[in-house]
Write a structure and sequence with these properties.
Helix content is about 75%, strand content about 0%. With about 90 residues, it is mainly alpha-helical.
Length: about 90
Amino acid sequence: MKNLKRIWLEIVISFLILALFFSGEYEAIPPALQLLSLKIGLVSVGILHAHIIGKLIIPVRVDWSGLLIPAHYVRMVLYAIIPICYAFGG
């Protein structure tokens, strides 16, 4: 439950965007807002994916006050690369 506090906003955004897509109201909004909502939804899901992958593959937590080890850098790169890849559509 402690980790859900850190990503609750991403979960809420993802569910809201998915509800918008499946409700049929998606076609009623202008194309620019459709693209914006799609990108926001993709980035939110990408952040959730990065969080899950980081927890499964690299269980060390990044401690900003101590010495950074290579696993910390890998985890930071995951949080940058995965949402970017989702935002580009794949």
